[in-house]
Amino acid sequence: MGQGTSYLTERLKDQISNLKNAIQNLKQKNPENLFGQAGYLMAKEIQKDNQKFIEKGLGIKFDKWFSEEKELRKKKEFAKTIKALEKKNLTYRKDGAWWLKTAEFGDDEDRVLLRSDGAASYFLSDIAYHLNKFKRGFKKIINIWGADHQGHVKRMQSVKKIFDWPGELKILISQLVTIKEAGQVKKLSKRKGDVILAEDLLKEVGLDATRWFFLEKSLNTHMEFDLALAKERSEKNPVFYVQYAGARIHSILTKSQISIRQLADKSLPRQQAGQTNSKSQIPALPASRSNLKQLNHQSELALIKKLIQFPEVIEDIAKDYQVHRFTNYVYQLATIFNIFYRDVKVLGSGENESARLALVFLTRQILEKCLKLLGISAPEKM
Q1: CA-CA distance, 355 to 85, in Å (whole number)?
Q2: Are 312 and 378 within 8 A, CB to CB?
Q3: What angle do CA 123, 128, 132 make, to 5 degrees?
Q4: Rounded distance between C-alpha atoms, residue 281 and residue 257, angstroms
Q5: Could you say which architecture CATH assigns to the domain 66-173?
Q6: What H or E segment, with its residue span, contains residue 125?
Q7: What residues does each domain of the chain span?
Q8: Inter-axis angle of helices 324-343 and 310-320, nearest 10
Q9: Could you give the dihedral angle defined by the CA atoms of residues 72, 75, 81 and 83, in that order, rounded to the nearest 10 degrees?
Q10: What's the longest Cα–Cα distance across the chain?
Q11: Alpha-carbon distance 368 to 297, whole Å?
């Protein structure tokens, strides 16, 4: 434990030090399987850190954290899985190992379940885990795998057929990520320990930029993460550009002194121009159809057309999981709004002001919803 140096970070050194007493106990109780047990203890500590970082650092919430040790190994699910496959007459022994007849169900070849030394293969673990999901009643399962697992897709789809699971099993393959720093692409190697941890990347560029840059590329496209661009506070940085558009919208609405609460609450009666909200003592925005018909400038119409695409974009992504289209949409929306802001006077535009403010307000609503779905903040000032 701790003899290799490739992954030996300061944090890992601390974790190993904290486990020394537990490892000493293992030496006395179970010396034959010392490395296996010590590795398991270390993995538990690493996973605790990973869970904390994912939830608090990345802001990602999972309904259930699944433990292979507790849910599969201790409950003898591997043995139960093999027994179920034996009943289907789909296993056989060859070269001392136990194999599954996956080739009969669309795989390129049969796959090992138990190795010749009796150890379970990763594939057996995957089968048991998916059977657990099938039993939990899911109608759709979405797996996101790394590029090095492309060859595992057929074998897992064959498991779906073997157990005649009626739901949809969707497997998405992500491509590799490289880091660009100071104009140079860094060559990363997991085997050599030359890696950049997500936690370090987050500290370097922040959560908003990290989320945006990972989401803006299609999963099946190689990604080059430009550190300098991610840290830049200018319109060259797409997430800064979008957030700045949102801050500009907030500024316009604040300067207008319009009752945003009344505008947002459709249940309140709409007031006529010149009247005030007795509680806020600021003019309330009329939103009559006659006013909205005044929006006929080319830039106004372009913004309206982009806004009404929002539900369609969401629906399409829900069907094909191409999330990168969403960042494209948000960036285009910010661009079209900036053109609108350049071409059209909003405040002090006379009889057109209320209709244009309504359009600005709607843009703010859609833009904030988009950023919330992406898990990116929408600052009011930049």
Answers
A1: 66
A2: no
A3: 145
A4: 10
A5: 3-Layer(aba) Sandwich (3.40)
A6: helix 122-135
A7: 1-60, 66-173, 177-231, 238-374
A8: 170
A9: 160
A10: 88
A11: 24
Residues constituting the chain:
382
* Type and span of the H or E element at 363: helix 353-374
Alpha-carbon distances, residue 198 vs 129, 222, 264 (angstroms):
26, 17, 39
Pairwise CA distance, residues 196 & 312, whole Å: 37
Provide the 8-state DSSP code for 144. E
CA distances from 239 to 55, 146, 211, 216, 341 (A): 22, 25, 9, 10, 19
Q: What are all long-range contacts of 189-196, with beta carbons under 8 Å and residues at least 24 apart?
A: 191/6, 192/6, 193/5, 193/6, 193/7, 193/8, 195/7
Distance from C-alpha of 35 to C-alpha of 1, rounded to nearest angstrom: 8
HSE value, Cβ hemisphere, 13 Å, CA-based, for 345: 6
* Residues 136 and 107: beta-carbon distance below 8 Å: no
Among the residues of 236-322, which ranges form H helices?
238-256, 260-264, 289-292, 298-307, 310-320
Residue 290: predicted pLDDT: 46
Q: What share of the chain is helix, strand, coil (3-state, %, to 5)?
A: 55, 10, 35
CATH number for the domain formed by residue range(s) 238-374: 1.10.730.10
Q: Report the pLDDT value the prediction gives residue 81, as an integer from 0 to 100.
A: 97
Report the predicted TM-score, pTM, of the whole model to 2 decimal places: 0.80
Backbone angles phi, psi at 41, to 5 degrees: -60, -40
Pairing of strands 177-181, 223-226: parallel
Non-local CB neighbours of 341 within 8 Å, separated by 6+ positions: 248, 252
Mean pLDDT by 10 residues, the chain (382 residues): 55 70 67 65 81 92 90 95 96 96 96 95 96 91 92 95 94 90 76 76 94 93 92 95 96 78 43 39 43 84 95 95 96 98 89 87 94 95 88
Tokens of 333: 């929306």
What is the Cα 372 distance to its own chain's centre?
12
